[in-house]
Amino acid sequence: MSATSQTITLPGPLPLDGGGELARVEVAFETYGELNADRSNAILLCHALTGDQYVASAHPITGKPGWWERMVGPGKPIDTDRFHVICANVIGSCMGSTGPASAAPDGSPYGMRFPVITIRDMVRAHVGLLDALGIDRLHAVVGGSMGGMQALSLAANWPERTARVLVIASTSRHSAQNIAFHELGRQAIMADPRWKQGNYYGGEAPDNGLAVARMAAHITYLSEEALTGKFGRNLQDRDAKSFGFDADFQVESYLRYQGSGFTRRFDANSYLYITRAMDYFDLAEEHGGRLADAFAGADARFCLVSFDSDWLYPTSESRHVVHALNAAGAAVSFVELSAPHGHDSFLLDVPALDRVIGGFLG
Fold first, then answer.
1. Active-site positions, per UniProt (predicted)?
2. Which top CATH class is 4-173+283-361?
3. At 238, is the pLDDT very low, low, confident or very high (cuts 50, 70, 90)?
4. Is 214 annotated as a binding residue?
5. Which of 37, 104, 133, 190 is paired with 222 by a 20 to 30 Å CA distance?
């Protein structure tokens, strides 16, 4: 399956929730499948915190398959023989869309001069992209985790722009525990002496701090069942313990691998900004404190999916959104799926999820 990679510059400044604006915004995106004559078959896929636009094509840095290649393609649940699929890198990220590593108006990288952004700001840039592509109304917006936050934000703030909203393993606001884990990661980055208040571009990046942040976050993506089943208390060398600080246990080695690999493809400042945007997200607070009011103008069909082993965004979070949608009179379906993988279940082989997605989009 071929993918088309593009970058567009939005025609004007992008207003931000914080009160300022970004003077020049580039949005990097990929498309799959053909847009039909009346432009009614477009699906916007919204990626998670550390995702990007390479949803079903090889990543240009790591060479690994796209993050949802099992879901997107000809004959797959998100069928590119039927749908025109768009996946854009969020602003604040580091794979082509404007972010902290981008050049500011003075020609130097923004670094920590980049303005604070929100989930709604990310979606505002997505809407600008849709305008540039001449797509007035989506067949569907689909997202898991942070992508689900974007899908909910689009439905709440631009209800006329989509006919269907599919939200997987997500939430309408972060809990104190979610915020605490993110702050642990941010502090690890800022404690790295190579961070230099965010002014590390052109020199050594704070890879040690970013790797620790990734390790801490990755624990929240998995379930205890998954970690125990895969690693247990198994040692790297089953015959000996080092009794030191090397990676004695297999789970330690796995986390270190996840951390070191992540630094090859992600920017530390982007991690700071995007995690902060997720922590600020509170859809009810944006609409006067009552979540149902966020969906008062929505005429889309909604589908929410949770996983019974996800303790990062447990089923109770999805039910909270479903109750609000019911109160607003929206058409909504909800399913909790059984899977052992934890939060990452939406990215892994869960055949029941394939059936839900294919059925809802069809």
1. 145, 310, 343
2. alpha beta
3. low
4. yes
5. 190
